[in-house]
Amino acid sequence: MTRILAPLGILAELTHRCPLQCGYCSNPLELLKANRELSTGDWISTFRQAASLGVLQVHLSGGEPTLRKDLDQIIACLAENGIYSNLITAGVSFSREDLSRFRQAGLDHIQISFQGALPETTELVGHLKGAHEKKRAAAGWAVDLGLPLTINAPIHKLNIHEVPDFVALALELGAERLEIANVQYYGWAHLNRAALLPSYDAVMAQVEYVHDIRERLTGILNIDFVTPDYYADYPKPCMGGWGADAMAITPDGQVLPCHAAQTISSLTFDRVTEKSLSEIWHHSDAFNRYRGDSWMPETCRSCERKDIDFGGCRCQAFAVTGSAAETDPACIKSPYHAHLRKMPAEGPIQRRVIGKSPQPA
Amino acid sequence: MLLSEPFVPRESQRLIIGPDSHPVLHRHVRLRRDEIRGKWVILAPEKVLWPDEISVEILSRCTGKISVATLSQDLAKAYDAPADQVEADVIEFLQEWADRLLIRTEETPS
Lengths: 361, 110
Ligand code: SF4
Ligand code: SF4
What we know:
Number of helices of chain A: 14
Radius of gyration of chain B: 16 Å
CATH superfamily of the domain at 9-226 in chain A: Aldolase class I
Order of helices and strands of chain B: EEEEHHHE
Strand order of the largest sheet of chain B: 2-3-4
CATH architecture of chain B: Orthogonal Bundle
GO molecular function (chain B): quinone binding
CATH class of chain B: Mainly Alpha
Helix content of chain B: 25-40%
Order of helices and strands of chain A: EHEHEHEHHEHEHHHEEEHHHHH
Number of strands of chain B: 5
Number of helices of chain B: 3
Oligomer: heterodimer
Number of strands of chain A: 9
GO biological process, one term (chain B): pyrroloquinoline quinone biosynthetic process
Shape of chain A: globular
Number of domains of chain B: 1
Pfam families (chain B): PqqD
Organism (chain B): Roseibium suaedae
CATH topology of the domain at 9-226 in chain A: TIM Barrel
Largest sheet of chain B: 3 strands, antiparallel
CATH architecture of the domain at 9-226 in chain A: Alpha-Beta Barrel
CATH superfamily of chain B: Coenzyme PQQ synthesis protein D (PqqD)
Bound molecules: iron/sulfur cluster
Distance between the termini of chain A: 40 Å
Strand content of chain B: 15-25%
Strand order of the largest sheet of chain A: 7-6-5-4-3-2-1-8-9
Shape of chain B: flat
Helix content of chain A: 25-40%
Keywords (chain B): PQQ biosynthesis
CATH class of the domain at 9-226 in chain A: Alpha Beta
């Protein structure tokens, strides 16, 4: 049996509702309507349990978390329990007054996503008119209110050439941190992968640029880089390992070992409305299935990198091979490594719409 | 891809820590006691750090009110160690933390 340590972090997806429609959304293909969402009381009880389990950080995400009317109560509950709160938002659906209320409730940090570094790109990707200017205003309010700011830039074919502009934008807006996050291809992004995956040359140029600029901006801007793995020899590490120190909770209270775990259709998940968080963390089948290394195929179990990447991404393994217990196909040792780059014909990007499942490409 | 140098606003230059700096934790950084694990912890966006005992001694003195020199003398006394060696170590430690944007400095009160 793998020893189970206390969890450190939770990604709380408060809602699937969102004013944007990005083609790489990490929400499941089947989006939940508002009437399926947990109540304020459910979230508060969950976060109190989380604190006593050892959780130190909560990322409030969605969809768009600021569409929840009770967001200040939720933030206040985290602050009371000493949990570091991070609001992950698109930055288009709240006012300066709202943000000031969140701050007063005890919000520690805000992360605003920009779909492009230029207004045209932000609109092209997110499909919301005027979004870029709204985001810039929201970032300005955050800085004014003394709220630490991260700019999040999800990178793919349509905006990879804007990476230097994202750096300039983050500096101009006065952000502490820039997250250059190459889109990971499961869920919506996997569906739209042919239209989103950048070319090999573009990826290599980006990697070189980011390493260089990060060095030059030491002490000025923190740049976190989520590298693309489609062209790598080894997979990215799966957090600290599956079920090692983090979990995600869906708008209707299902507790997942990873925010994309619902793409693995062979897993079932427990709900905070039915079981205690502690019971779920320690005993849920979804968590225990890929904890430690006993589930690993021989390729990984005998590999010296298994404590570095934990066999890679379970969701990517499932998406590409049909089995979540396979070696991540991003790994050169995977028999499916070549499959990873086989793309379906490129079609139009399918947008997320609540209440309508997309057609697989 | 264009590899131009981005424009860096003047107020955001790399911070250099010296004996007269008055260090303080950045506003996005929290140092707190984790009672469940019985350890001190540093919380920052997407980061959880477990500072060792001596790091905690330094960081908990980073209030923006005392200089690196004073802080180092304090520590030297508490640990019965040579003051100049302690100061050099403290500066090196804080420079690294400043480069990771975990520490900033209060303008020296004039
Ligand atoms: S074989 Fe498994 S553990 Fe080894 S590098 Fe590949 S994915 Fe990682
Ligand atoms: S399984 Fe994949 S998507 Fe999930 S946390 Fe691990 S690496 Fe990330």
